[in-house]
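Next comes one such specimen:
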Amino acid sequence: MHILVTNDDGVQAPGLLALAQEMRKLGKVTVFAPDKNWSASGHVKTMERPLRVKETFLADGTSAFMSDGAPSDCVALPLLGLIEEKIDLVMSGINPNANIGHDVTYSGTVTAAMEAVITGVKGIAISLDSPEGHEGALDYSCAASIARRVAEKVIADGLPEGVVLNVNVPYLNEVELKGFMITRQGLRVYRDALDVRSDPRGKPYYWIGGEAPTGVDEPGTDFGALHAGYVSITPLQLDLTHYKAMDVLKKWNFK
């Protein structure tokens, strides 16, 4: 079993290290991640400039590859042949914040796993629902253990074609978890605000800020599961077609 571990927070992020260490219990691990933070980057593929790749070392002394490309580039490059040995599974994370609801379209963590699935390799995204305003280092041990358990099931049972798993873990000890819940995407409530400022020469610039997002607590959703203390596992499909809307649009009369 050869597992590629990546993220969108940068190769030295502690969540990536925790994930890589846990995945080594399942097989060979190659770490290939961005050289900087790409949070909220979405599904980026670099086409208009060359990509650079360097070898580096994680905090535990193990080797890793880093690229100046986006998270999805860090999956595409090895799957296209930069890493010669066949890759069986891509694990993306551990993101320090939950990726739920509409977050999945913004998330470099989730879209890195999607890049794997597009290429025909199983992909799993792992995120930790850390408390708002948490100070100090985060404890990724529970999320890493959950990632291993989910990966074990995927290795053993497989996944339907075109499905990426989006896994979100409450910020609890493993013994405190209520269990696992298969969920649908919930409704994320964003509280973004535009902050307009002026530079030293008096020219305006803009900063998208605001309060941290919340969500609608509905049973069966990713947000609802996290709020109730469950690990949320959401199967996402790459086919974004709204089939019911097709039936409506087919009635349009274009003249």
User: Anything to note?
Assistant: Residues 77 and 83 are 8 Å apart (CA to CA). Residues 2-187+215-249 form a domain with the Stationary-phase Survival Protein Sure Homolog; Chain: A, fold (CATH 3.40.1210.10). The chain has a mean pLDDT of 94.
